[in-house]
Amino acid sequence: MFFKTKDLMTVGNITLGLGGVLVAMEGMGAPREDVGVYVFWSGLLIILAVVFDIFDGKVARALGQMNRFGAEFDNVADLTSYSIAPAFLLYLAYQKYVTLPGIEQGSQLQTAISVTVAMFPAVFGCIRFARFNVRKLDVPGFWIGFPRPMAALFYVSLVNSHLFLSTGAMAWVGVVLIVYASFMNLSRMPFIGHHDREWSWHLKIILTCVWVSALVAFVAGVVFKVMPERTVFDVVLLWLSYDLFIQWTDIPKAAREEVARLTANWNE
Question: Does residue 237 lie in a domain region?
């Protein structure tokens, strides 16, 4: 039987990703004052999809069920949850959730901007998916290009953060950040990965702070309501901004040069 117990984790990944799509679709028909609730829950479902994705490999190794089907199934699930689902959420956010300064609400121009913003994670994610299928490249300890799970979390955390709604100008800043993250998804820049990596003491501390702060924000905000529920998105956005813009400083120059050499002909 090619479908094994560990693949149920991948089913959870797909289910939650599609749940994010469906919630975003429902939000399109909601009154404008209620759209924020749909943006929140769509984003939260995508975050939970990432949690299932993290544990599917751990379950597979624990049960000794590593196989090619699981790897391909996981890759398809990632495309659904990290490229397609965020596209629906971004369209909802820019079409009905925020006001773009200088753009009339509900105008054709706003719709065109919303469609364009939504296309970036979907199109670039599909290109990355196809590229890895054609020419898979594994560099121990690194991801090549901004990983799809991190990109998806960046998109959904951005539009759910308090910063995003702080001023109208942040909606335009968000467009720039979404486009940048999408291009970085296809870049040859190395990003610190967890496969075959010996973690330095300071990266262990940073990684621990990431999980602890996100978990505390989720429990305190979403479960017990003792802090703003969107705090979890603020925390995730903060850490992912470090990953997107600053993490390269933790990669030795020699390692960056070696990755550049290995990936020199990757796009040919």
Answer: yes
- For the chain, how many structural domains are there in total? 1
Mean pLDDT of the chain: 91
Is 268 a member of any domain?
A: no
CATH code, 82 = 1.20.120.1760
Residue 267 domain-assigned?
Answer: no
Residue 102: is it exposed, middle or buried by C-beta count within 10 angstroms (0-12/13-18/19+)? exposed
Count CA atoms closer than 13 A to 74's CA, side-chain side: 23
Task: Give burial (CB, 10 Å; 0-12/13-18/19+) of 188.
Answer: middle
The answer to whether 131 and 124 are in contact (CB under 8 A) is no
Whether residue 209 lies inside any domain: the answer is yes
- Cβ atoms of 151 and 219 within 8 Å: the answer is no
User: What confidence tens digit (pLDDT) does each residue in 104-145 have?
Assistant: 988 999 999 999 999 999 999 999 999 888 887 778 889 999
Residues 84, 25: Cα–Cα separation, whole Å: 12
259: enclosing H helix or E strand: helix 253-262
Distance between first and last Cα of the chain: 37
Count the residues in the chain. Answer: 268
**Residue 231 lies in domain:** 7-262
Residue 32 buriedness (CB in 10 A; 0-12 / 13-18 / 19+): exposed
> Which of 19-33, 74-88, 135-149 is predicted least confidently?
135-149
Q: What is the DSSP string of 141-167?
A: TEEESS-HHHHHHHHHHHHHSTTTTT-
Q: Both tokens of residue 263? A: 């990936």
